[in-house]
Amino acid sequence: MTARKSASKLDLNNKQITNLGEPQNGTDAARKVDVDTAHDNAISRDNHTGTQLSTTISDFDAAVRANRLDQMAAPTNPVGLGGNRLSSVGEPVSASDAATRGYVDSKLSEQVTSRVFKGVARVSSDSPVNIASPGATIDGITMDANDLVLLAGQTTGSQNGFYVYHGAASAMTRADNWDSDEDAKLGSYWVVTEGTHADSFALMTNDAPFVIGTSVLTLVHISATEGATAPYETDLGDGSATSFTCDHNLGTKAVNVVVVRNASPYDEIDVAILRPTANRVVIEPDDVWSAGQFHVTISKARG
């Protein structure tokens, strides 16, 4: 039966229309299920195909900030930091890793000084040591566990190097900073505190790329105290004396003695010089010098 068209509004007095069919046209009455489905589809993010402002998403900022940088897509253009620093950067491993200031400073220091400090060795032995069972003493010094030792006189030269002492009957092991080719940097040096080479610098003199276990470490020892000894200086002449005793206390007769005029042209003069002891020089001019007429400088001779 075809319903008659209504010529005016219908008041259903809060009553329902039931058993409606599925709407086909835009003017058809919609069922509750049709409205509910449309609503659910409208709010479902799976169905969003347009643009939605981030300000309309309540937890957008918090969700983005919770993601780590390594979870983000890699940048394809330079990233500017606006003049700010990257802090707490790890030490670089690969060639393309960011370098810390400490890493850069250490590398620059190595280049500037051409020397790489490798630590303090208790002794530096020029005689062979049995690495597998070194005994209680090395270079005349009674060793303690974990002492650091330089070996430079091994029968098998490739065994020379920087070692950790573990006990009289325990095998010595290469120190952590001298157990790889990368560690064996040309120009390395150590400070030696006891034994034959006490108070000296042990300098690596190799000049070719070094291979641990193959290359032979060669060292030269330089006194750490000799260079710190200041020369002795004083004015000479008093108008009467013809002999001047200078107690320089340098502990050796191998000293350089330079006597110069204390006025123009400040020239060096030849004069009789005696070295009666390791701590004394006697200067004997041929004539009488006026007060402060000459000046003497006495310093240790370099070997």
How would you concisely characterize the structure shown here?
The protein is α+β, with helices and mostly antiparallel strands and 303 residues long.
Describe this structure in words.
This protein is elongated. Helices cover 11% and strands 24% of the residues. Among the domains are: 116-226, no CATH class; 230-300. It contains three helices and 16 strands. The chain has 303 residues and is α+β, with helices and mostly antiparallel strands. The strands form five sheets. Strands 1-8-9-10 form a four-stranded mixed sheet. A four-stranded mixed sheet has the order 2-5-6-7, with no helix packed on it. The protein has a three-stranded antiparallel sheet with strand order 11-16-13, with no helix packed on it. The chain has helices at residues 32-43, 60-66, 101-113; strands spanning 116-121, 123-125, 137-138, 141-142, 148-151, 161-164, 173-174, 188-192, 200-204, 219-223, 232-236, 244-247, 255-261, 272-277, 280-284, 294-300.
Indicate the structural class. Answer: alpha+beta
Globally, the shape reads: elongated
Order of helices and strands: HHHEEEEEEEEEEEEEEEE
Helix content class: 10-25%
Low-confidence stretches: none
Biggest sheet features:
4 strands, mixed
Rg calculated over all Cα atoms: 45 Å
Distance between the termini: 130 Å
Strand sequence of the main sheet, in spatial order? 1-8-9-10
Could you tell me the number of beta strands? Answer: 16
> On the 0-100 scale, what is the average pLDDT?
86
Helical segment count: 3
**Strand-residue fraction?**
15-25%
